[in-house]
Amino acid sequence: MHNFKELHVWKKAMDTAQAVHAICQQLPDAERYGLISQMRRAAISVPSNIAEGSGRGSNADFRRFLSIAGGSAYELETQLLLTGRFNYCSQEQLASLLMQISELQKMLYGLRNSLRDN
């Protein structure tokens, strides 16, 4: 069992979820039940799956939840790219968030791979 609150990847995922929530506040009300809902769900899924997986009894289970978290991170990346295409946020905001998500994806991949050897 891992203490998820001490994992750098979980902290990064929490920061990313907070940043996504802030971006969502800028989106038009027409996206409340569409893009906003999807983005918030995906952003929250990442740290939630890291936390859930860390409490599982085996590294294999933890790896599976990290994989799910990674999938949510890629889903969120796509939604942010759409946000940029729809001109709902500045290119600077978009670039910053996309860089955060890229780092998060790499961290998830690295942690997942490190658990194979244990």
TrEMBL record:
Pfam families linked to this entry? 23S_rRNA_IVP
**CDD domains documented for this protein:** 23S_rRNA_IVP_like
InterPro entries per UniProt: 23S_rRNA-intervening_sequence, 23S_rRNA_IVS_sf
Q: What is this protein called?
A: Four helix bundle protein
Q: Which SUPFAM superfamilies match?
A: IVS-encoded protein-like
Q: Which Gene3D superfamilies match?
A: 23S rRNA-intervening sequence
